[in-house]
Each structure stands twice: as structure tokens, then as C-alpha cells.
Design goal:
The structure holds 2 protein chains of 2 kinds. By secondary structure, chain A is mostly helical. Chain A contains 9 helices and no strands. By secondary structure, chain B is mainly α. In chain B, 81% of the residues lie in helices and 0% in strands. Chain B starts with a helix and ends with a helix. Classes of the chains: A mainly alpha, B mainly alpha. The interface between A and B is medium-sized, with 32 and 32 residues.
């Protein structure tokens, strides 16, 4: 039993390491995601006209929509790149459980998202002078990104095999991640204002993550087959 | 009814086809009677006035739409287990009918909301969830039509049919949390118990809408069958032509 778990862990790590290595050598997705968030923040600045009195109200929404859109950009690439280079078939030929391929892809996407946020969130907070404690934001961002990445990995794998992949991914994903956006935005508001309970939103995110981790893990083999 | 006619030319209609055809004709007077009950028979509601009459259309439509998406989820699980095309056709037909009914639910809801709430739309849990539901199943239909091949589309759609059904209650719950922690004045539709003539009108309307669903569903499934058959024939013909050349 333990040897099996150990092997599964090793296999998953190999899958994650592969994606990280590819990204490390090209730096394609990562730099695009960071720049994308930066330029979105500039656009939002003009769209909403941040002022000292409005920034506390607008900041959570701006932050989470930047997170969501950057995530979409990254997810779109995870399977598309494999598909374009014909490596998806090779991946499927590997003697690994299909569920582990899901976990590997999920962890790689999640790591990209978190790395991008590690750079962009502090920039956002200083640029717009938001009074927000960054360490307190970490669990919220991690749980939110996990939920987003779980469903995102599933739909990215599907969208790759359709004629309109860039268009279809957000259409499939966004309606279902509404709870993540709600919990993320409200949780961030609690952190900024200091009023209300953060636990409610963390619980919502944790519940969402657990349910969909189980469901997607069980269903992923049907997406990869053939 | 078009399907039944196409079939009738090739072979005599089977009994389910004849039964559904009869149902179609029976629906015509029933729907007229339903309109009579809604607009003339049911008494005018005390607080909401005539606007409340939308209720008799709106609520049955919503129930059937939710039923449709429930069937999509069950048929999707059955399809992934058995890989029988019949389950896939059932799921697809129900998703289409569900989207059509949900569209009507959103429209009739807005028509009802404007005079009663003073606004076409409000972001309460039920409305928001219905709108999200609409988005999920429209994207379900898009996923099917954009898939690179039929079998893949069916499989992906089945996965989305299951994930979507699980997402909807979570969505409802989270929007409710979002609302209750940020209370705004949302006036729900009058929750006074239905009585007598109103209850009868509602139940009759529910019956008519259910029959409408039972009429549309098999017709849609047969049409999909014919489309599949036609696609198969076309493929066979193209292969024949390619071989001849």
C-alpha cells in the first residue's frame, strides 16, 4: 500500500516536473500571465478610477478578476501545448493512472497561478495602496486558485479537442467557478475591512475544492480516453 | 410532428409514434383551456393583481427545466457506464429542452418581476442560480457542436452534464451566503398558500407543461436518431465514392 502511494507520488512529481521544466526553458506562459495581470490592472485603473475612498470597495473584485483571467490564460496553454506538439499521445501511453495525469496537470497549473500571484498581488497592493495583510491573504488565494484550477484542468483538457478552444474554455469554466469568485471577493473584503468572518468563505472554498477534486478525479479518465 | 411524418412515409408508424402524435393533437385544446383558466377562471390575486397570473406559466416551466437538467445528469452517468447512444440522445434532447424552458423561465420571470419588484432583475439566489444554469447548459450544447468528433462530444458532454448538476446546488448555496451576509431588500414572490381555483389552475398548467415536455422530448430524440442515421449514410456514401475513384 505504502509502496503504491510512494510510486504514485513519484509519478505525479515526474509529471509536474516535466511541465515546470518545459516552462522554465521557454518562460512563455509565466511571463505572459504576469504581464497580462499588470496590463489588466492598468486598464482597471482607468475603468474604475481608483480613489482613496473607493479603492477598498473595488480592490477585492479587481484582484480576483485579475486572478481569474490570468488563470484562464495559463490553463488554456496546459493542454494546448501538448496537443500542438503531439506529446499528449505520448503522455497517454505512459503506464500511469489517468487520475495521476490529472493531478500532475492540476499541480502544475496551480503552481503557475500561485507564482504569478506571488508577484502580482504585492504589486497590486502597493500600487493601489490597499490596506491588506498579505500573509492573511495566502490561504484564501491558495484555496481559491485550487478550486479554479481543478475545474479549469478538466475543461482545458476538453476544450483542447474542440474547434474553438480559446473561446470555449471560459464559457465552460466561468459559470461553474462563481462560488470561488464570491468566496474570494467576500473573503478579501473581510480582510480589508476587518469586519465579518473569514472562516465562512474559507470553508466554502474548502468544500468546493474537496467536492470537485473528487468528482473531477473520478471523471478525468473519460476525458482523456481516445 | 415533422419526424413522425418522415417516418410514416418509409414504414407505418409504430405505436409510440402514434401515441405521441395523438398527444400533440390533444395538447392543442388543452393549451387553449389552460390559457382560459389562467386569464379568466383563476381569481385576481389580492396584492399582486393580474401580474400574478405569470406564475401559472413561470413555475411549471421552471420545474420542468430543473427536471430536464436532472435527467441530463442521470442519463450522462448512464451513458458513461453503458456507452449506449440512446442515453446520449436522451441527455442531449433534455439539455436542449431544458435550455429552451430556462430561457422562457428567465423571460417570464422578468415580466413578473418588473411590476412586482419594480425591476427586471435582482441578484437573489434563485434567479442567479437559474441564470448560471442557463449558461452551463448553453455551453454544454456549444461543447457538443464544437467537438471534433461525435463520440468525443458525447463523452465530454456527459462529463459536463454531471459536473454541472453538482455545481448548481453549490452555486445556489454560495449565492445565498453572499446575499444573507449582505442583505438588501429583495421581496420574494407572495408566499401565501394557493387555494381552490388558483391551485387547480396551477396544477392544470403544470399538467399541460408536463405533457408538452413529454410531446417534445420523444420527437427531439427521434429527430436526433434520424440525423445520426443520415450522417452514417453520408459517410458510407462518401466512402463508396472514394472507393469507386
Amino acid at each position: 500500500m505504502t509502496t503504491m502511494a510512494l510510486r504514485a507520488g513519484k509519478q505525479t512529481w515526474a509529471l509536474v516536473a516535466k511541465d515546470l521544466l518545459v516552462e522554465w526553458r521557454s518562460k512563455e506562459v509565466f511571463s505572459a500571465m504576469v504581464l497580462y495581470v499588470a496590463v489588466v490592472l492598468v486598464i482597471y485603473n482607468f475603468a474604475f478610477e481608483f480613489r482613496r475612498d473607493t479603492v477598498a470597495v473595488l480592490a477585492p473584485g479587481v484582484l480576483w478578476s485579475a486572478v481569474i483571467f490570468a488563470g484562464l490564460l495559463g490553463l488554456g496553454r496546459t493542454f494546448a501545448a501538448e496537443q500542438d506538439q503531439g506529446t499528449l499521445d505520448a503522455l497517454l501511453l505512459c503506464p500511469v493512472d489517468r487520475g495521476l495525469i490529472f493531478v500532475g496537470k492540476l499541480l502544475a497549473s496551480l503552481l503557475f497561478m500561485l507564482l504569478v500571484q506571488a508577484i502580482t498581488v504585492p504589486v497590486f497592493v502597493t500600487l493601489f495602496d490597499v490596506r491588506l495583510s498579505l500573509p492573511a491573504l495566502v490561504p484564501l488565494v491558495v484555496l481559491g486558485s485550487l478550486g479554479f484550477a481543478v475545474l479549469g484542468t478538466l475543461f482545458a483538457a476538453m476544450a483542447t479537442h474542440t474547434r474553438a478552444r480559446e473561446m470555449l474554455l471560459p464559457l465552460l469554466l466561468l459559470p461553474l467557478v462563481v462560488p470561488v469568485v464570491i468566496a474570494g471577493v467576500r473573503g478579501t473584503q473581510v480582510l480589508i475591512s476587518g469586519e465579518g468572518s473569514l472562516a465562512v468563505w474559507l470553508n466554502l472554498l474548502a468544500g468546493f475544492d474537496l467536492i470537485f477534486l473528487g468528482v473531477v478525479y473520478a471523471l478525468f479518465e473519460y476525458v482523456l480516453e481516445g | 410532428m415533422g419526424t413522425t411524418m418522415v417516418r410514416a412515409q418509409s414504414a407505418s408508424a409504430s405505436w409510440p409514434e402514434r401515441a405521441v402524435g395523438l398527444l400533440g393533437w390533444a395538447l392543442l385544446p388543452l393549451m387553449v383551456l389552460d390559457l382560459y383558466l389562467i386569464f379568466l377562471y383563476a381569481p385576481r390575486e389580492l396584492t399582486q393583481g393580474d401580474a400574478q397570473r405569470v406564475f401559472y406559466i413561470h413555475v411549471p416551466l421552471a420545474w420542468i427545466a430543473y427536471l430536464c437538467f436532472g435527467i441530463v445528469a442521470v442519463a450522462s452517468i448512464a451513458y458513461l457506464r453503458t456507452r449506449s447512444a440512446a442515453w446520449d440522445r436522451l441527455a442531449r434532447a433534455c439539455a436542449e429542452i431544458g435550455v429552451a424552458f430556462t430561457t422562457l423561465v428567465l423571460i417570464t420571470g422578468s415580466i413578473w418581476g418588473k411590476p412586482i419588484w419594480g425591476t427586471w432583475w435582482t441578484w437573489d439566489a434563485r434567479l442567479t442560480t437559474t441564470l448560471i444554469l442557463w449558461f452551463i447548459y448553453v455551453s454544454y450544447l456549444m461543447l457538443r457542436s464544437y467537438a471534433t468528433d461525435e463520440a468525443r462530444g458525447a463523452r465530454y458532454a456527459a462529463v459536463l452534464g454531471i459536473v454541472g448538476a453538482i455545481g448548481v446546488p453549490i452555486n445556489y448555496f454560495s449565492v445565498q451566503l453572499w446575499r444573507t451576509l449582505h442583505p438588501t431588500a429583495v421581496v420574494g414572490p407572495g408566499s401565501s398558500g394557493l387555494e381552490g381555483a388558483m391551485l387547480f389552475t396551477f396544477l392544470f398548467s403544470l399538467l399541460v407543461m408536463t405533457l408538452l415536455f413529454l410531446y417534445v422530448l420523444p420527437n427531439r430524440i427521434w429527430l436526433i436518431e434520424i440525423q445520426d442515421e443520415l450522417r452514417g449514410l453520408r459517410r458510407a456514401l462518401l466512402e463508396e465514392v472514394a472507393r469507386a475513384q
